[in-house]
Amino acid sequence: MVQSAVLGFPRIGANRDLKKATEAYWAGNLSQTDLLAEAKRLRLAHWKIQKDAGVDVIPSNDFALYDQVLSHIQDFGAVPERYSNVGLDRIDEYFAMGRGHQKGGVDVPSLEMVKWFDSNYHYVKPTLQDNQTFSLTSNPKAVAEYVEAKEAGINTRPVLLGPVSFLHLGKADRGQSVEPIDLLEKLLPVYVELLTKLKEAGAETVQIDEPVLVFDLPAKTKAAFKPAYEKFASVAAKIPQLVFTTYFGDIVHNLDLVPKDVYALHVDLVRNPEQLETVLSALGPKTTLSVGVVDGRNIWKTNFKRAIEVAETAVQKLGKDRVIVATSSSLLHTPHTLASEKKLDPEIADWFSFASEKAVEIALIAKAITEGPASVREALEANAKSMTARATSKRTNNPQVKERQSKIAASDYNRKSEFPSRISQQQKKLNLPLFPTTTIGSFPQTKEIRVQRNKFTKGEIAEAQYDKFIEQEIDMNVKIQDELGLDVYVHGEPERNDMVQYFGERLDGYAFTTHAWVQSYGSRCVRPPIIVGDISRPAPMTVKESKYAVSVSSKPMKGMLTGPVTCLRWSFPRDDVHQSVQAEQLALALRDEVVDLEKAGIDVIQVDEPALREGLPLRAGKEREAYLDWAVKAFRLSTVGVEDSTQIHSHFCYSEFQDFFHAIAALDADVLSIENSKSDSKLLGVFVDEAYPRHIGPGVYDIHSPRIPSEQEIKDRIEEMLQYLKPEQLWINPDCGLKTRQWKETKAALVNMVNAAKFFRAKYAK
Ligand SMILES: Nc1nc2c(c(=O)[nH]1)N[C@@H](CNc1ccc(C(=O)N[C@@H](CCC(=O)N[C@@H](CCC(=O)N[C@@H](CCC(=O)O)C(=O)O)C(=O)O)C(=O)O)cc1)CN2
Ligand SMILES: [Zn+2]
What we know:
Layout: E1 3-5, H1 17-26, H2 32-53, E2 59-60, H3 68-75, H4 81-84, H5 90-99, E3 101-103, E4 106-108, E5 113-115, E6 122-124, E7 127-128, H6 141-151, E8 157-161, H7 163-168, E9 171-172, H8 184-201, E10 205-209, H9 219-234, E11 241-245, E12 264-268, H10 276-282, E13 288-294, H11 304-318, E14 323-327, H12 346-349, H13 355-371, H14 377-392, H15 399-406, H16 419-430, H17 447-457, H18 463-484, H19 501-504, E15 508-511, E16 518-521, E17 524-526, E18 530-536, H20 543-551, E19 558-562, H21 564-569, H22 579-599, E20 604-608, H23 622-639, E21 647-652, H24 661-666, E22 671-674, H25 685-689, E23 695-698, H26 711-721, H27 743-764
Parallel strand pairs: 1-14, 2-8, 7-9, 8-10, 10-11, 11-12, 12-13, 13-14, 19-20, 20-21, 21-22, 22-23
Antiparallel strand pairs: 3-4, 5-6, 15-18, 16-17
Helix pairs in contact: 1-2, 6-8, 8-9, 11-13, 17-18, 22-23, 26-27
Bound molecules: the ligand Nc1nc2c(c(=O)[nH]1)N[C@@H](CNc1ccc(C(=O)N[C@@H](CCC(=O)N[C@@H](CCC(=O)N[C@@H](CCC(=O)O)C(=O)O)C(=O)O)C(=O)O)cc1)CN2 and zinc ion.
């Protein structure tokens, strides 16, 4: 029979239960015991959902209190000493690596956190030493959770991140020079020990994730697969059977690296259905193929007909016993259940499927193949009906939007003048000192703000009252910036629930949800709006708040928008129209907003594009160039409608600039702020080598952690930056917005930042 498998289930729970529990624990309002009990409750609930859905292969160890890679770091004894030797218990050590720890005389920043492939999820980077050793902890999480499920009557398939991916996704610690992949020999015994324990506990198969196989890999990493999987083959009798798992891309270019003797191979056929033929012809004679046909990255109902066709192609070649139908990747990137969405228009809700519904889908697809379509006839018919309804719906099509798109001219992509002329006109207006200080946009989203917004959303307070509240927040933010002595102000974004969701809610062509949360990092979640049709802007979206902010401020005030590519990437995009078309529609809507802000007297406008880098296709080549072409065009289309004297800023976090610099330069923004505090300042070298003439603010401190950076630390960072950048092009700002922080630490950090800037201002004053 064809089995059904889920590669991973979202862990936050139907009501962001995990977020609430961890945050309560951090605040000292929940005991460790209660935190662990809540985590257990969630795991059991999620296993039960999948079991009830009829899924054959249910994952375990897909859970994590903060991040699954971080859990591996701890279980493998790869905890840097600064966390392991300061007397923290296991849970606090874990959170210290994830979010820093500044309490009880301990002061450690967090480990670096970066994007998980091309998703909006973030993982903690394994951070390794030259003399790194590994050892398995006494009660490894993978074993404990396998046993826990078994005791609940569910025989799961544990998920592990494979050794090559674990090392490839890691880095040398600051000041260390080890190449992580060179540590393979030392790491493998830990995997063997862990796999052996899983087998002893009863696990028959293990999902071993090697997603790095979708990248273009350096020779050394490629060479690591053979010894790693030969080692596992040599102890095959002692360990579970391995399902070698890849996702988020095709593996055709690395097919020779797939071990021939593993029990099964999983490939993502949602992203790259065309790889099936090649993969099938290269498969080992006994290997089972796990075909990923239910999208783990988006919320559209699966097209059963298409999914079954794909799976049948594999069945014809391999037979039913050698095919597993599965989700394309973990469902971590999808919301918990559609059942919570009481406010969605039923016509549109019929097009969607969230994690719990996807579990049902995958079981149905397996049944359709094993027992024949007649066994699930009703479900197939209902599915076909939904597909037709969506394809023919009037809701998705807006001729006026298409008409405008067809009229875009080459001149719509260019500013009036080049940067040198622009910056002098801007400087006349803005009169900024050397080393201007600014922040990235958001200020703390306090409990009070959320409560007021919640009341407003529920209709408990009137719009006028809510608007008044927002104005008071803006007043307060301006006053605080006066006191801090910042140079370019922000209004603080108090009116925004999220930088993407907020715009989605104000644009036509979008649907939005009430409970569809997805984990972004640690306890932080997002509720991506859903692009269902052609996008347009019925009315200005941010002008009212920005105009008010300018009216109460004596310093330049930045207008604040989320760029077209980030709006696209952090929404659930349509899958029936190319992403470039959706980005262009967003760009046109934002262009009107930018021009309206300028008309309202806003001289500095920041258009954030933190997701531009994450959208970059994972492999170099034509696809990448095509992406950069439309992404850069979308940004330019949205920003260049202004006068030379209006200063355009853009912001990037989570960006590795080495392979990306030319695109950033091509945006032609006047000022860039980038995340930098966790990276080696050497990386700023690209801006020198490539002679970047415009202004730039590399972040001077990390905003993900409550830890307060000292003035000296910030000065040291600036000093390093000055080795690469000219004083007259350098801005001083944090890595990113401050919405996740408390006011107390925000003020303390910004005082130190402003003082550090003043120090250099005095030093360079002539
Ligand atoms: N979309 C997106 N992706 C991003 C980022 C981002 O800002 N947005 N930043 C980067 C890092 N990722 C982040 C992701 C989320 C958050 C974040 O702060 N999320 C908030 C939720 C933001 C939100 O939508 N808030 C809503 C809902 C708030 C809420 O919880 N309301 C309560 C009711 C009010 C109460 O009693 O607290 C409820 O619904 O139950 C609002 O403010 O209106 C959180 O998890 O806490 C930060 C960074 C990369 N990716
Ligand atoms: Zn940012």
